[in-house]
Amino acid sequence: MSGDGYGTHDHTYSFPPMPPMPPAPPPAPADGARAVAVAVLNLGGLGLGYALVRRWGLMLLCWIATAALLFAVLPADPDGVPVFALVLYGVFLAAVAAHGARVGLRARPTWPRQAPLALLLGLVLLAVPAGGVVLYDDARDEAVQQMLLDRLERADRLVAKAGTQSFSLGRDGYRQAVEVYENLSADHPGSRAADRVPGRMKTFYATVGEAYAQGDHCGAIEPLTYLRTVPRSMPRTDLGELTDWPDDRLATSLYACASQGLTAGDTTWASQFGELLTTFPESDQAAKVEPAVRAAVTRTSRDLQGSEPCGAVERLRSLSSEIDGLPGEEAGVDDALARDARQATANADSGAYLCGVDQYRDGDFEAAQTTMNTFVEANKNHKNRARAQKIAIAAEIAQTVPAAGKSLPTTRTGGSISVTVQNDSPDDITVLYTGPVTGSFTLKACGSCTTYSFSSTLSPGFQPCSDSGKNYPERTISLPPGTTYFLHKPNNDSLSTPASDTAKLRSGYIYTECAYATQTLGSGF
User: Fold this and answer.
1) Greater confidence, 90 or 348?
2) In this predicted model, what pLDDT tens digit does every residue of 97-130 receive, in sequence order?
Protein backbone atom coordinates (compact mmCIF):
# COMPACT_ATOMS: atom_id res chain seq x y z
CA MET A 1 0.00 0.00 0.00
CA SER A 2 1.39 3.47 -1.04
CA GLY A 3 0.19 7.02 -1.31
CA ASP A 4 0.46 10.30 0.39
CA GLY A 5 -3.04 10.71 1.65
CA TYR A 6 -5.46 8.87 3.81
CA GLY A 7 -7.29 6.06 2.31
CA THR A 8 -9.30 3.03 3.30
CA HIS A 9 -8.04 -0.42 3.72
CA ASP A 10 -9.94 -3.65 3.94
CA HIS A 11 -9.00 -6.06 6.71
CA THR A 12 -10.33 -9.56 7.17
CA TYR A 13 -10.36 -11.18 10.63
CA SER A 14 -11.07 -14.83 11.37
CA PHE A 15 -12.10 -16.53 14.75
CA PRO A 16 -11.69 -20.06 15.77
CA PRO A 17 -15.00 -22.06 15.74
CA MET A 18 -17.10 -22.42 19.02
CA PRO A 19 -16.90 -25.80 20.67
CA PRO A 20 -20.18 -27.82 20.32
CA MET A 21 -22.70 -27.84 23.22
CA PRO A 22 -22.64 -30.97 25.29
CA PRO A 23 -25.48 -33.25 24.28
CA ALA A 24 -28.62 -33.36 26.58
CA PRO A 25 -28.66 -36.37 28.79
CA PRO A 26 -30.71 -39.05 27.22
CA PRO A 27 -34.06 -39.71 28.89
CA ALA A 28 -34.06 -42.44 31.39
CA PRO A 29 -35.49 -45.66 30.23
CA ALA A 30 -39.19 -46.05 30.86
CA ASP A 31 -39.79 -47.29 34.36
CA GLY A 32 -43.39 -48.09 35.37
CA ALA A 33 -42.45 -48.47 39.01
CA ARG A 34 -40.97 -45.01 39.01
CA ALA A 35 -44.09 -43.56 37.38
CA VAL A 36 -46.27 -45.18 40.02
CA ALA A 37 -43.97 -43.89 42.76
CA VAL A 38 -44.27 -40.31 41.50
CA ALA A 39 -48.06 -40.64 41.21
CA VAL A 40 -48.38 -42.09 44.71
CA LEU A 41 -46.15 -39.39 46.19
CA ASN A 42 -48.30 -36.75 44.51
CA LEU A 43 -51.42 -38.29 46.02
CA GLY A 44 -50.18 -37.13 49.42
CA GLY A 45 -51.17 -33.63 48.41
CA LEU A 46 -47.71 -32.06 48.94
CA GLY A 47 -46.39 -32.70 45.42
CA LEU A 48 -43.48 -34.89 46.68
CA GLY A 49 -43.67 -36.81 43.41
CA TYR A 50 -42.77 -33.60 41.60
CA ALA A 51 -39.92 -33.07 44.04
CA LEU A 52 -38.67 -36.54 43.12
CA VAL A 53 -38.42 -35.48 39.46
CA ARG A 54 -37.33 -31.87 40.20
CA ARG A 55 -40.55 -30.17 39.07
CA TRP A 56 -40.46 -27.53 41.80
CA GLY A 57 -43.08 -25.23 40.38
CA LEU A 58 -45.57 -28.02 40.16
CA MET A 59 -44.73 -29.06 43.72
CA LEU A 60 -45.45 -25.47 44.87
CA LEU A 61 -48.78 -25.65 43.07
CA CYS A 62 -49.65 -28.77 45.10
CA TRP A 63 -48.76 -26.96 48.31
CA ILE A 64 -50.99 -24.04 47.35
CA ALA A 65 -53.91 -26.34 46.55
CA THR A 66 -53.53 -28.25 49.81
CA ALA A 67 -53.26 -25.01 51.79
CA ALA A 68 -56.44 -23.76 50.12
CA LEU A 69 -58.22 -26.97 51.15
CA LEU A 70 -57.04 -26.62 54.75
CA PHE A 71 -58.17 -23.01 54.79
CA ALA A 72 -61.61 -24.09 53.57
CA VAL A 73 -62.13 -26.89 56.07
CA LEU A 74 -60.42 -25.59 59.22
CA PRO A 75 -61.44 -25.13 61.90
CA ALA A 76 -63.63 -28.20 61.77
CA ASP A 77 -67.30 -27.39 61.18
CA PRO A 78 -70.17 -29.52 62.52
CA ASP A 79 -71.53 -29.73 58.97
CA GLY A 80 -68.25 -31.23 57.71
CA VAL A 81 -66.23 -30.34 54.63
CA PRO A 82 -68.08 -28.56 51.84
CA VAL A 83 -68.79 -31.08 49.10
CA PHE A 84 -67.58 -28.85 46.32
CA ALA A 85 -64.19 -28.46 48.05
CA LEU A 86 -63.76 -32.22 48.39
CA VAL A 87 -64.76 -32.84 44.79
CA LEU A 88 -62.47 -30.13 43.50
CA TYR A 89 -59.54 -31.29 45.59
CA GLY A 90 -60.12 -34.91 44.59
CA VAL A 91 -60.10 -33.98 40.92
CA PHE A 92 -56.90 -32.01 41.52
CA LEU A 93 -55.14 -34.96 43.21
CA ALA A 94 -56.22 -37.31 40.44
CA ALA A 95 -54.86 -34.87 37.87
CA VAL A 96 -51.47 -34.39 39.57
CA ALA A 97 -51.20 -38.14 40.15
CA ALA A 98 -51.84 -38.83 36.47
CA HIS A 99 -49.54 -36.05 35.38
CA GLY A 100 -46.84 -37.16 37.82
CA ALA A 101 -47.04 -40.70 36.50
CA ARG A 102 -46.55 -39.47 32.96
CA VAL A 103 -43.64 -37.23 33.94
CA GLY A 104 -42.01 -39.85 36.12
CA LEU A 105 -42.15 -42.58 33.54
CA ARG A 106 -38.80 -41.51 32.03
CA ALA A 107 -37.55 -38.75 34.38
CA ARG A 108 -34.50 -39.51 36.43
CA PRO A 109 -35.30 -39.16 40.13
CA THR A 110 -33.14 -37.11 42.42
CA TRP A 111 -33.99 -39.18 45.46
CA PRO A 112 -34.34 -41.97 46.20
CA ARG A 113 -32.95 -43.30 42.98
CA GLN A 114 -34.43 -46.73 43.32
CA ALA A 115 -38.09 -46.70 42.21
CA PRO A 116 -39.25 -49.39 44.65
CA LEU A 117 -37.88 -47.39 47.53
CA ALA A 118 -39.64 -44.24 46.25
CA LEU A 119 -42.89 -46.18 45.88
CA LEU A 120 -42.56 -47.50 49.42
CA LEU A 121 -41.96 -43.96 50.67
CA GLY A 122 -45.05 -42.74 48.81
CA LEU A 123 -47.18 -45.46 50.34
CA VAL A 124 -45.89 -44.60 53.81
CA LEU A 125 -46.57 -40.90 53.29
CA LEU A 126 -50.17 -41.66 52.28
CA ALA A 127 -50.71 -42.29 55.98
CA VAL A 128 -50.36 -38.55 56.55
CA PRO A 129 -53.55 -37.48 54.72
CA ALA A 130 -55.32 -40.58 56.02
CA GLY A 131 -54.38 -39.58 59.57
CA GLY A 132 -55.49 -36.05 58.81
CA VAL A 133 -58.89 -37.37 57.79
CA VAL A 134 -59.18 -39.25 61.07
CA LEU A 135 -58.11 -36.20 63.07
CA TYR A 136 -60.53 -34.03 61.13
CA ASP A 137 -63.38 -36.42 61.86
CA ASP A 138 -62.51 -36.26 65.56
CA ALA A 139 -62.40 -32.47 65.39
CA ARG A 140 -65.70 -32.42 63.56
CA ASP A 141 -67.29 -34.68 66.18
CA GLU A 142 -66.07 -32.32 68.88
CA ALA A 143 -67.44 -29.37 66.95
CA VAL A 144 -70.81 -31.12 66.79
CA GLN A 145 -70.67 -31.74 70.54
CA GLN A 146 -69.90 -28.08 71.18
CA MET A 147 -72.70 -26.99 68.87
CA LEU A 148 -75.17 -29.18 70.77
CA LEU A 149 -73.88 -27.89 74.10
CA ASP A 150 -74.37 -24.35 72.81
CA ARG A 151 -77.98 -25.21 71.96
CA LEU A 152 -78.43 -26.63 75.43
CA GLU A 153 -77.01 -23.48 76.97
CA ARG A 154 -79.33 -21.26 74.91
CA ALA A 155 -82.31 -23.32 76.07
CA ASP A 156 -81.11 -22.96 79.66
CA ARG A 157 -80.98 -19.20 79.24
CA LEU A 158 -84.54 -19.21 77.86
CA VAL A 159 -85.74 -21.07 80.95
CA ALA A 160 -83.87 -18.74 83.30
CA LYS A 161 -85.29 -15.65 81.59
CA ALA A 162 -88.84 -17.02 81.54
CA GLY A 163 -88.53 -17.78 85.24
CA THR A 164 -88.17 -14.06 85.97
CA GLN A 165 -91.47 -13.28 84.20
CA SER A 166 -95.08 -14.17 84.77
CA PHE A 167 -96.03 -17.53 83.27
CA SER A 168 -98.13 -15.95 80.53
CA LEU A 169 -95.17 -13.85 79.38
CA GLY A 170 -92.61 -16.63 79.79
CA ARG A 171 -94.63 -19.42 78.21
CA ASP A 172 -93.12 -19.00 74.73
CA GLY A 173 -89.65 -19.22 76.24
CA TYR A 174 -90.56 -22.43 78.05
CA ARG A 175 -92.02 -23.88 74.87
CA GLN A 176 -88.90 -23.09 72.85
CA ALA A 177 -86.67 -24.59 75.52
CA VAL A 178 -88.68 -27.82 75.56
CA GLU A 179 -88.38 -28.05 71.78
CA VAL A 180 -84.58 -27.82 72.11
CA TYR A 181 -84.44 -30.40 74.91
CA GLU A 182 -86.68 -32.76 72.93
CA ASN A 183 -84.56 -32.33 69.78
CA LEU A 184 -81.34 -33.06 71.65
CA SER A 185 -82.78 -36.20 73.21
CA ALA A 186 -84.51 -37.56 70.13
CA ASP A 187 -82.10 -36.56 67.35
CA HIS A 188 -78.74 -36.67 69.15
CA PRO A 189 -78.90 -39.51 71.69
CA GLY A 190 -75.55 -40.26 73.28
CA SER A 191 -74.25 -36.72 72.88
CA ARG A 192 -72.94 -34.89 75.90
CA ALA A 193 -75.77 -32.39 75.57
CA ALA A 194 -78.43 -35.13 75.44
CA ASP A 195 -76.90 -36.77 78.51
CA ARG A 196 -77.45 -33.52 80.41
CA VAL A 197 -81.09 -33.08 79.39
CA PRO A 198 -82.60 -35.09 82.30
CA GLY A 199 -80.85 -32.81 84.79
CA ARG A 200 -81.97 -29.75 82.87
CA MET A 201 -85.58 -30.97 82.94
CA LYS A 202 -85.48 -31.06 86.74
CA THR A 203 -84.44 -27.42 86.69
CA PHE A 204 -87.12 -26.71 84.08
CA TYR A 205 -89.89 -28.23 86.20
CA ALA A 206 -88.72 -26.46 89.34
CA THR A 207 -88.63 -23.12 87.50
CA VAL A 208 -92.08 -23.46 85.94
CA GLY A 209 -93.54 -24.66 89.25
CA GLU A 210 -91.98 -21.89 91.33
CA ALA A 211 -95.37 -20.34 92.14
CA TYR A 212 -96.39 -23.52 93.93
CA ALA A 213 -93.15 -23.56 95.93
CA GLN A 214 -93.91 -20.00 97.03
CA GLY A 215 -97.43 -20.96 98.17
CA ASP A 216 -99.24 -19.09 95.38
CA HIS A 217 -101.76 -21.83 94.65
CA CYS A 218 -103.96 -19.79 92.33
CA GLY A 219 -100.93 -18.63 90.35
CA ALA A 220 -99.58 -22.18 90.19
CA ILE A 221 -102.59 -23.71 88.41
CA GLU A 222 -101.75 -22.57 84.88
CA PRO A 223 -98.03 -23.47 84.92
CA LEU A 224 -98.66 -26.83 86.61
CA THR A 225 -101.34 -27.60 84.03
CA TYR A 226 -98.81 -26.79 81.32
CA LEU A 227 -96.21 -29.11 82.89
CA ARG A 228 -98.63 -32.01 82.54
CA THR A 229 -98.46 -31.53 78.74
CA VAL A 230 -94.65 -31.69 78.55
CA PRO A 231 -94.46 -35.53 78.52
CA ARG A 232 -96.25 -35.47 75.17
CA SER A 233 -93.07 -34.00 73.67
CA MET A 234 -90.26 -35.42 75.80
CA PRO A 235 -89.19 -39.08 75.93
CA ARG A 236 -90.30 -40.57 79.26
CA THR A 237 -86.75 -41.79 79.84
CA ASP A 238 -85.65 -38.17 80.08
CA LEU A 239 -88.39 -37.28 82.57
CA GLY A 240 -88.55 -40.27 84.87
CA GLU A 241 -90.43 -39.33 88.02
CA LEU A 242 -90.98 -35.83 86.64
CA THR A 243 -93.80 -37.25 84.49
CA ASP A 244 -96.10 -37.32 87.53
CA TRP A 245 -94.41 -34.42 89.35
CA PRO A 246 -97.14 -31.82 88.67
CA ASP A 247 -100.16 -34.03 89.50
CA ASP A 248 -100.35 -33.83 93.28
CA ARG A 249 -99.21 -30.21 93.24
CA LEU A 250 -101.91 -29.28 90.71
CA ALA A 251 -104.60 -31.10 92.71
CA THR A 252 -103.49 -29.27 95.86
CA SER A 253 -103.47 -25.92 94.06
CA LEU A 254 -106.91 -26.46 92.53
CA TYR A 255 -108.39 -27.30 95.91
CA ALA A 256 -106.64 -24.49 97.78
CA CYS A 257 -107.47 -21.82 95.21
CA ALA A 258 -111.08 -22.94 94.85
CA SER A 259 -111.51 -22.99 98.63
CA GLN A 260 -110.21 -19.43 98.85
CA GLY A 261 -112.59 -18.33 96.09
CA LEU A 262 -115.51 -20.13 97.73
CA THR A 263 -114.89 -18.23 100.95
CA ALA A 264 -114.28 -14.89 99.24
CA GLY A 265 -117.19 -15.18 96.80
CA ASP A 266 -114.98 -15.49 93.72
CA THR A 267 -116.94 -17.12 90.91
CA THR A 268 -113.96 -19.13 89.58
CA TRP A 269 -114.13 -21.68 92.40
CA ALA A 270 -116.70 -23.87 90.64
CA SER A 271 -114.57 -24.36 87.52
CA GLN A 272 -111.52 -25.17 89.65
CA PHE A 273 -113.40 -27.70 91.77
CA GLY A 274 -114.86 -29.11 88.55
CA GLU A 275 -111.40 -29.57 87.07
CA LEU A 276 -110.21 -31.23 90.27
CA LEU A 277 -113.16 -33.65 90.32
CA THR A 278 -112.68 -34.69 86.69
CA THR A 279 -108.88 -34.67 86.44
CA PHE A 280 -108.05 -36.19 89.82
CA PRO A 281 -111.30 -37.87 90.95
CA GLU A 282 -109.51 -40.39 93.18
CA SER A 283 -107.25 -37.86 94.90
CA ASP A 284 -107.42 -36.89 98.55
CA GLN A 285 -108.05 -33.32 97.44
CA ALA A 286 -111.14 -34.33 95.44
CA ALA A 287 -112.55 -36.03 98.54
CA LYS A 288 -112.50 -32.66 100.33
CA VAL A 289 -114.63 -30.85 97.75
CA GLU A 290 -118.10 -31.85 98.96
CA PRO A 291 -117.39 -31.10 102.66
CA ALA A 292 -116.02 -27.70 101.64
CA VAL A 293 -119.13 -26.94 99.61
CA ARG A 294 -121.43 -28.10 102.41
CA ALA A 295 -119.57 -25.88 104.88
CA ALA A 296 -119.97 -22.92 102.51
CA VAL A 297 -123.73 -23.46 102.39
CA THR A 298 -123.88 -23.59 106.19
CA ARG A 299 -121.68 -20.53 106.57
CA THR A 300 -123.65 -18.48 104.07
CA SER A 301 -126.95 -19.53 105.63
CA ARG A 302 -125.80 -18.09 108.95
CA ASP A 303 -125.37 -14.74 107.19
CA LEU A 304 -129.15 -14.61 106.72
CA GLN A 305 -129.34 -13.51 110.35
CA GLY A 306 -126.80 -10.75 109.77
CA SER A 307 -127.09 -7.19 108.62
CA GLU A 308 -127.23 -8.10 104.91
CA PRO A 309 -129.70 -10.97 104.55
CA CYS A 310 -130.46 -10.12 100.91
CA GLY A 311 -126.82 -10.56 99.99
CA ALA A 312 -126.84 -13.94 101.74
CA VAL A 313 -129.92 -14.97 99.75
CA GLU A 314 -128.22 -14.06 96.48
CA ARG A 315 -125.09 -15.97 97.46
CA LEU A 316 -127.12 -19.02 98.43
CA ARG A 317 -128.94 -19.00 95.10
CA SER A 318 -125.62 -18.62 93.30
CA LEU A 319 -124.13 -21.42 95.40
CA SER A 320 -127.04 -23.69 94.55
CA SER A 321 -126.61 -23.08 90.83
CA GLU A 322 -122.85 -23.56 90.88
CA ILE A 323 -122.97 -26.65 93.11
CA ASP A 324 -125.58 -28.16 90.84
CA GLY A 325 -123.16 -27.80 87.92
CA LEU A 326 -120.22 -29.59 89.59
CA PRO A 327 -119.30 -32.91 87.88
CA GLY A 328 -119.26 -35.23 90.88
CA GLU A 329 -119.96 -38.54 89.11
CA GLU A 330 -116.38 -39.74 88.71
CA ALA A 331 -115.51 -38.84 92.30
CA GLY A 332 -118.68 -40.49 93.62
CA VAL A 333 -120.04 -37.34 95.27
CA ASP A 334 -122.80 -36.47 92.83
CA ASP A 335 -125.66 -37.29 95.22
CA ALA A 336 -124.07 -35.43 98.13
CA LEU A 337 -123.54 -32.35 95.97
CA ALA A 338 -127.15 -32.50 94.81
CA ARG A 339 -128.27 -32.46 98.46
CA ASP A 340 -126.06 -29.44 99.13
CA ALA A 341 -127.57 -27.61 96.16
CA ARG A 342 -131.10 -28.34 97.36
CA GLN A 343 -130.22 -27.17 100.86
CA ALA A 344 -128.82 -23.91 99.51
CA THR A 345 -132.01 -23.34 97.52
CA ALA A 346 -134.23 -24.12 100.50
CA ASN A 347 -132.25 -21.79 102.74
CA ALA A 348 -132.37 -19.05 100.12
CA ASP A 349 -136.15 -19.43 99.77
CA SER A 350 -136.58 -19.31 103.52
CA GLY A 351 -134.13 -16.43 103.84
CA ALA A 352 -136.11 -14.39 101.35
CA TYR A 353 -138.46 -13.48 104.21
CA LEU A 354 -135.60 -11.93 106.19
CA CYS A 355 -134.43 -10.17 103.03
CA GLY A 356 -137.89 -8.71 102.45
CA VAL A 357 -138.08 -7.50 106.05
CA ASP A 358 -134.68 -5.84 105.66
CA GLN A 359 -135.75 -4.16 102.41
CA TYR A 360 -138.96 -2.96 104.04
CA ARG A 361 -137.11 -1.45 106.99
CA ASP A 362 -134.67 0.21 104.59
CA GLY A 363 -137.58 1.85 102.75
CA ASP A 364 -137.10 -0.12 99.53
CA PHE A 365 -140.81 -0.95 99.37
CA GLU A 366 -140.93 -2.01 95.73
CA ALA A 367 -138.14 -4.57 96.27
CA ALA A 368 -139.76 -5.70 99.53
CA GLN A 369 -143.08 -6.29 97.77
CA THR A 370 -141.41 -8.37 95.04
CA THR A 371 -139.35 -10.35 97.54
CA MET A 372 -142.28 -11.13 99.80
CA ASN A 373 -144.54 -12.15 96.93
CA THR A 374 -141.81 -14.51 95.69
CA PHE A 375 -141.39 -15.90 99.19
CA VAL A 376 -145.14 -16.48 99.57
CA GLU A 377 -145.26 -18.28 96.21
CA ALA A 378 -142.28 -20.52 96.98
CA ASN A 379 -143.13 -21.38 100.59
CA LYS A 380 -146.70 -22.63 100.85
CA ASN A 381 -146.28 -23.97 104.38
CA HIS A 382 -143.67 -21.67 105.88
CA LYS A 383 -144.43 -20.30 109.32
CA ASN A 384 -143.75 -16.72 108.15
CA ARG A 385 -145.90 -16.95 105.04
CA ALA A 386 -148.92 -15.14 106.54
CA ARG A 387 -146.88 -12.23 107.78
CA ALA A 388 -144.97 -12.06 104.50
CA GLN A 389 -148.33 -11.57 102.72
CA LYS A 390 -149.15 -8.66 105.02
CA ILE A 391 -145.69 -7.11 104.54
CA ALA A 392 -146.16 -7.33 100.77
CA ILE A 393 -149.54 -5.49 101.13
CA ALA A 394 -148.05 -2.77 103.34
CA ALA A 395 -145.06 -2.40 101.00
CA GLU A 396 -147.39 -1.84 98.04
CA ILE A 397 -149.36 0.80 99.95
CA ALA A 398 -146.15 2.49 101.12
CA GLN A 399 -145.04 3.00 97.52
CA THR A 400 -147.93 5.47 97.23
CA VAL A 401 -148.15 6.57 100.86
CA PRO A 402 -144.64 6.36 102.36
CA ALA A 403 -145.98 6.98 105.87
CA ALA A 404 -147.66 3.58 105.70
CA GLY A 405 -144.26 1.93 105.81
CA LYS A 406 -143.04 3.42 109.07
CA SER A 407 -143.71 0.25 111.03
CA LEU A 408 -143.54 -3.42 110.11
CA PRO A 409 -146.99 -5.05 109.82
CA THR A 410 -148.02 -7.76 112.26
CA THR A 411 -150.36 -10.71 111.87
CA ARG A 412 -152.97 -9.03 114.09
CA THR A 413 -156.56 -9.14 112.80
CA GLY A 414 -159.91 -7.48 113.58
CA GLY A 415 -160.84 -4.56 115.80
CA SER A 416 -163.73 -2.73 117.41
CA ILE A 417 -164.41 -0.11 114.73
CA SER A 418 -166.64 -0.90 111.75
CA VAL A 419 -165.48 0.43 108.38
CA THR A 420 -167.60 -0.11 105.25
CA VAL A 421 -165.89 0.24 101.89
CA GLN A 422 -168.11 0.85 98.81
CA ASN A 423 -167.19 0.79 95.14
CA ASP A 424 -168.63 3.67 93.08
CA SER A 425 -166.57 2.81 89.97
CA PRO A 426 -167.19 0.75 86.84
CA ASP A 427 -164.13 -1.42 87.58
CA ASP A 428 -163.41 -4.33 89.83
CA ILE A 429 -161.09 -2.99 92.51
CA THR A 430 -158.71 -4.30 95.14
CA VAL A 431 -158.70 -2.53 98.47
CA LEU A 432 -155.49 -2.73 100.51
CA TYR A 433 -155.14 -1.36 104.02
CA THR A 434 -152.44 -1.29 106.68
CA GLY A 435 -152.00 0.21 110.10
CA PRO A 436 -152.70 -1.60 113.37
CA VAL A 437 -153.92 -4.44 111.14
CA THR A 438 -153.17 -5.20 107.51
CA GLY A 439 -155.21 -6.90 104.82
CA SER A 440 -156.82 -6.71 101.40
CA PHE A 441 -160.02 -7.68 99.63
CA THR A 442 -161.70 -7.14 96.28
CA LEU A 443 -164.96 -5.48 95.30
CA LYS A 444 -166.85 -6.09 92.10
CA ALA A 445 -167.57 -3.22 89.74
CA CYS A 446 -170.67 -1.09 90.15
CA GLY A 447 -172.66 -1.90 87.01
CA SER A 448 -174.60 1.35 86.96
CA CYS A 449 -171.63 3.55 87.91
CA THR A 450 -169.53 5.66 85.58
CA THR A 451 -166.24 7.45 85.73
CA TYR A 452 -166.52 10.98 87.14
CA SER A 453 -165.06 13.86 85.19
CA PHE A 454 -162.20 15.53 86.91
CA SER A 455 -164.06 18.88 87.04
CA SER A 456 -167.02 17.32 88.81
CA THR A 457 -164.81 16.21 91.66
CA LEU A 458 -163.92 19.85 92.26
CA SER A 459 -167.52 20.85 92.95
CA PRO A 460 -168.21 21.72 96.64
CA GLY A 461 -171.21 19.42 96.61
CA PHE A 462 -169.41 16.40 95.17
CA GLN A 463 -170.40 13.28 97.14
CA PRO A 464 -169.63 9.85 95.63
CA CYS A 465 -171.39 6.74 96.86
CA SER A 466 -174.46 8.89 97.69
CA ASP A 467 -176.95 7.88 95.00
CA SER A 468 -179.72 5.98 96.80
CA GLY A 469 -180.84 4.49 93.51
CA LYS A 470 -177.61 2.57 93.04
CA ASN A 471 -176.60 -0.66 94.66
CA TYR A 472 -172.93 -0.12 95.47
CA PRO A 473 -170.80 -3.25 96.03
CA GLU A 474 -169.46 -3.01 99.54
CA ARG A 475 -167.67 -4.82 102.31
CA THR A 476 -167.49 -4.07 106.04
CA ILE A 477 -164.32 -4.79 108.01
CA SER A 478 -163.44 -4.32 111.67
CA LEU A 479 -160.35 -2.29 112.50
CA PRO A 480 -158.74 -1.17 115.75
CA PRO A 481 -158.35 2.51 116.64
CA GLY A 482 -155.43 4.32 115.10
CA THR A 483 -154.30 5.44 111.70
CA THR A 484 -155.11 3.13 108.81
CA TYR A 485 -153.85 3.68 105.26
CA PHE A 486 -156.07 2.63 102.36
CA LEU A 487 -155.12 2.01 98.73
CA HIS A 488 -157.70 1.40 95.99
CA LYS A 489 -156.57 0.06 92.62
CA PRO A 490 -158.57 -1.15 89.61
CA ASN A 491 -158.01 -4.74 88.58
CA ASN A 492 -158.50 -4.32 84.83
CA ASP A 493 -156.10 -1.51 84.05
CA SER A 494 -152.59 -1.77 85.40
CA LEU A 495 -151.77 1.67 83.97
CA SER A 496 -154.30 3.46 86.20
CA THR A 497 -152.98 5.33 89.19
CA PRO A 498 -154.10 3.84 92.53
CA ALA A 499 -155.92 6.15 94.93
CA SER A 500 -155.02 6.37 98.59
CA ASP A 501 -156.64 7.61 101.77
CA THR A 502 -155.49 7.96 105.37
CA ALA A 503 -158.10 7.39 108.09
CA LYS A 504 -157.61 8.12 111.77
CA LEU A 505 -160.10 5.80 113.38
CA ARG A 506 -161.60 6.42 116.84
CA SER A 507 -163.83 4.22 118.94
CA GLY A 508 -167.56 4.99 118.97
CA TYR A 509 -167.73 5.90 115.27
CA ILE A 510 -168.80 4.03 112.13
CA TYR A 511 -166.84 4.83 109.01
CA THR A 512 -167.56 4.53 105.32
CA GLU A 513 -164.82 4.43 102.68
CA CYS A 514 -165.84 5.16 99.10
CA ALA A 515 -163.88 4.26 95.95
CA TYR A 516 -164.75 6.08 92.76
CA ALA A 517 -163.11 6.59 89.36
CA THR A 518 -162.05 9.83 87.77
CA GLN A 519 -159.10 10.52 85.59
CA THR A 520 -157.35 8.91 88.55
CA LEU A 521 -158.98 6.62 91.06
CA GLY A 522 -160.26 8.63 94.05
CA SER A 523 -161.41 7.80 97.57
CA GLY A 524 -162.95 9.60 100.57
CA PHE A 525 -165.40 9.46 103.51
Assistant:
1) 348
2) 677 666 665 565 555 554 565 555 555 556 556 5
Domain boundary among 125, 140, 165: 125
Range of the domain at 506: 412-524
What would the pLDDT profile of 424-455 be if each residue is shown by its tens digit? Answer: 988 899 999 999 999 999 999 998 898 888 88
Residue 155: partners with Cβ closer than 8 Å, 6 or more residues away: 176, 177, 180, 181, 200
pTM comes to 0.67
286 phi and psi, to 5 degrees?
-65, -30
The β-bridge relationship of strands 521-524 and 429-434 is unpaired
Contact assessment for residue 446 and residue 426, using Cβ atoms and an 8 Å cutoff = yes
DSSP structural state of residue 437: S
For the chain, the distance separating the N- and C-terminal CA atoms, rounded to the nearest angstrom, is 195
83 HSE (CA, 13 A, CB side)? 0
Can you tell me the distance from the alpha carbon of 430 to that of 254, in angstroms, rounded to the nearest whole number? 56
CATH of the domain at 460: 2.60.40
In a domain, 344, yes or no: no
Best CA proximity match to 426, nearest among 522, 517, 524? 517
**Strand pairing report for 510-517 and 521-524:** antiparallel
Please check whether residue 142 lies inside any domain of the structure: no
Span 494-520, pLDDT tens digits: 557 888 999 999 998 989 999 988 865
Asked if 106 and 30 count as a contact pair (C-beta separation under 8 A), the reply is yes
